[in-house]
Amino acid sequence: MILQSLSLINYKNFESINLEFDPQINCMVGQNGVGKTNILDAIYHLSFGKSYFNPITSQNIRHDADFFVIDALYKRNERDEKVLISAQKGQKKIIKRNGKSYDTLSEHIGFLPLVIISPADRDLITEGSTMRRKFIDGVISQSNPSYLHNLISYNKVLSQRNSLLKYFAANQTFDNNTLSIYNEQLQDYGSPIYDERNRFLHDFIPVFKERYNTITSGHEIINLKYQSKLSEAPLAQLLEQSLSKDRALQYTSTGIHKDDLSFQLSGYPIKKFGSQGQQKSFLIALKLAQFECLKKESNIAPILLLDDIFDKLDEQRVAHIVKLVADNNFGQLFISDTHNERTEQVVKNISQSYKMFPLGNQ
């Protein structure tokens, strides 16, 4: 899959810009604040219908403007695909493929597979379990529409159950029959999600370890562990056991929405015991493994976005990453960096076609 061209109007800091891309490597270079990351984010927006860095639509509209438009032309399975996203203040965002609007965003997810590696990924390590669930859910959803359907349905029922618990508390009442209906629905949607997460991680973890060992020359022991209460009992049983607690808290305290991934270095949490370089290598390995799994599941090489990828990594680790990209058919690659000469020297060594896009005062 190739992104051939991109047009932005009033998107973030761009009033108007039109870009024609190389089918292999494209480098956005320039000082901080000129919009390198914003171009990569627009490409992400086209795949997921939202910004990677700021999901609030109105805040992606350029200051003093009332709307933005992202317009792109792809080549996918030898066919041209035109994708357009537009948003106007106070109105619903519109996503069109070849001139036709989607009924729901979920219909679009997975059509343009994409992986982004960014300094913002550090939130996967430093923040709470919500970020890590979003990561695993995002990877699986791109290639598994039924998983995405179950996830959306589960979250909807979860919200309804939480509202009912608040109603019970506010009105000093209780109706176990109504609550049981929500419990059954959470079981129906949640159990397949748990099973699919286990299946996915069974395939994902060996690839992740292999990618990390390539980046670091295999001198460090890392691991991922899936943590879920559903490994102890079926969800329906867990919900019954937590009933008193849920009524007191007025929200659902157990279920797949509480699952987590444990990131480990030599058996210890990488958040506490990993250096910045080790943490960044860990995150890059996660994303490269994500790429491999998406490529295998969809039979399409995802677009790969590398945002400020060389920051805080020593030259040896950078060399391993470049070699990894060169040795594998990664398809189309987009890189942002502040150093024009450094970036061009790196991509020259890959021996593939490339195009440089100087932004700002170059």
Overview of the molecule:
The protein is an alpha/beta fold. The protein contains eleven helices and 14 strands. The protein has helices at residues 36-48, 123-126, 129-143, 145-171, 176-216, 235-241, 243-249, 270-273, 276-298, 315-327, 340-348; strands at residues 2-11, 14-20, 25-29, 67-76, 79-88, 94-97, 100-101, 114-117, 222-227, 260-265, 268-269, 303-307, 333-337, 354-358. The strands form three sheets. It has a six-stranded antiparallel sheet with strand order 2-1-4-5-6-7, covered by helices on one side. The chain has a five-stranded parallel sheet with strand order 8-12-13-3-14, with helices on both faces. A hairpin with a 5-residue loop joins strand 5 (79-88) and strand 6 (94-97). The longest helix is centred in the middle third of the chain and has 41 residues, at 176-216. The two termini are 30 Å apart. The model has no long low-confidence stretch (mean pLDDT 90).
